[in-house]
Model the fold of this input.
Amino acid sequence: TKTKAEPKSSGVTNGGARIVVDGDDEVLSPTDLSEMLAEGTKDSHDKAENCQFVKDFLRGRIKRELFKRGTAALYFVYAAMEEEIEKNEDHPHIAPIYFPAELHRREALARDLEYFYGEDWESQISLSAGTKPYVDRIHEVGQRDPVLLVAHSYTRYMGDLSGGQILKKVAQRALKLPSTGEGLNFYQFEGIHSQKGFKQLYRSRMNELELDAETKERIVGESNRAFSFNMMVFTELEEIGKTIKEEVQDAGLGHSHAEIMEGM
Ligand code: HEM
Done:
């Protein structure tokens, strides 16, 4: 579960809004977009973490075929998201959170797919029924309401920066992938030295966006939608998994869920 120590009030006031200082001395306000997103997607996050596919994955119960399909699904999602972000890179609500060298995953996913499927990977993958609504929504938002791309970026990139390292280790061990990182480029953010530091920068950039209260609420709503789309992808993979015969051994980290979370 995504938990944060209860913020301590600093007693400072800001136009009526209480300013709180968290454990890392970040100054937070409940009307900051980063705080609204963290608070407003808590339930969605709990649901995502507790769906069967994700629980199996964390236990190391993941079939190679399913991991390949999941990687393909992510490829379509990131290709759509990064295409729309790039089209809108000069938009005042996108430019401050535009970090292609640090965040963008399309190239990394393409390399992973080449590792799993071979040189002709592109002809071997297709957009699944469970992934299509997610991809369609990203294009719709990019064309009609680009400020909502903030929600899609937040939901994926901040999640990847939070849980990525643990998921990488689980997959490496369960699928016996080489320690060189082949097949796992998605989880490796070469342009980011401190995940924590980058998350702080990203949050402050979101908070500096010139947005009215209603737009902030719409971004939180869109992030919850993005969580639902991710769940649809997981549910579809779970269903496909039931039809695939493949050995899975319990190759999880051998720790409780709570312990795994401690390290994140
Ligand atoms: C943050 C764990 C799945 C999106 C986090 C954090 C942890 C975590 C430990 C850090 C919380 C913090 O910094 O206070 C996990 C685990 C998952 C999982 C164990 C299951 C494998 C997901 C999924 C998504 C997601 C499926 C969405 C696709 C996010 C986001 C954040 C986050 C957006 C940033 C929250 C914020 O600071 O605003 N997650 N997560 N997570 N996760 Fe997950």
In short: The radius of gyration is 19 Å.
